[in-house]
Amino acid sequence: MTGVLNVRFLPAVLLFYLAFSWGAANSRGQSVTDGSQANVGAQSNLARTRAEHLRHGINLSEWFAQVYDPRGYTKEHFQAWNTAQDIALIKALGFDHVRLSVNPQPMFRPRQADELPAEYLSNLDAAVKMILDANLAVMIDIHPDSDFKEKLAKEGDFTEQFADFWRGLARHYSNLDPNLVFFEILNEPEARDPYRWYGVESRVAVAIREGAPNHTIIATGARYSDDDDLLSIEPLHDSNVIYTFHFYDPHVFTHQGATWGENYWHFVKALPYPSTPENVEASIAAIPEPAKRLAAARYGMDRWNAARMDEEFDQVAAWAKRWNVPVICNEFGVFRKEARPEHRAAWISDVRKSLEKHGIGWTMWDYSGGFGVVTKPNGQPIVDELTVKALGRTVPHY
Fold first, then answer.
1. pLDDT single digits (tens) 220-259
2. Quick one: 150 and 235 in the same domain?
3. Does residue 12 form part of some domain?
4. Are residues 269 and 381 in the same domain?
């Protein structure tokens, strides 16, 4: 019919574009009430100001996500895994925030995802309160298993349910101090299509904003939150957002001895840092496959050192400056199993110093897990003083 838009005959791509444009506009409308440039700047400055609460932090893993405790996601586990003693120690070590990993799956109800189970949520509430009572900021990081993320990468209906979940969770915590409580959309997305991920992240950001109009959102790139994936996206149409990336390069060093990821990592032991073509030879000789041995040898050829870290973060800082947005690195670290302590500490120190040089706040992975700043051989935290020093923190002496 002439002069009338008949949506039945619009191509699917155009329909998606129109829907996405409406969502983006709605997101901007939620965060900038009158659409004025002044409010855009004010919201951007607000996110930057709040990012100052996220200068040097630690990840709390294996508590509400990645639970390996035989008790599973139970009240007994939640009350015992990290206690007020752990939170007090984190504060005493000089950290200003924690990143609290939360697996949504125990709370997720398909088709009713915004209806969060009260009993389970009460355990999470107790943990968040314990952190805030210690005057630490907290990132609530949604940290599901890979199968959950795979569904987000492929299924539009599941994205809507995830948005419902986030709307309900954000609403639940909307009464907490927005200067200290941050909402991280998703840990390490596994979307092979960055354009799809941008649409998913935008849609979920709208839902969070509907649930918590005043809180700052944390967003990331499409695949595993790598820095190169961050550099491939444009900022969301919401100015009250902090952007994050994770840094574990080169993985052959930071994940040596690991039994996940690349299979050959479990062969690698005592790989040194900084690297040269000569000093890696002994470590890579144990790798049986020539192609993988070459991949590890390239770590030596690339001569990873403090200057190499600076070059990496130069690019991140340039991206943040271009878009005038705050950026943080809320995961970096070295697996403890096979890395020599002095080499592990040197890598952590160089990354931390370079991030600080570039004005990028950081959150090390992790508190007491396989990358930990403490160990718990008998359930009580023992501080790794070498790691604490590498992080520029101070071990308290009582």
1. 999 999 999 999 999 999 999 999 999 999 999 999 999 9
2. yes
3. no
4. no
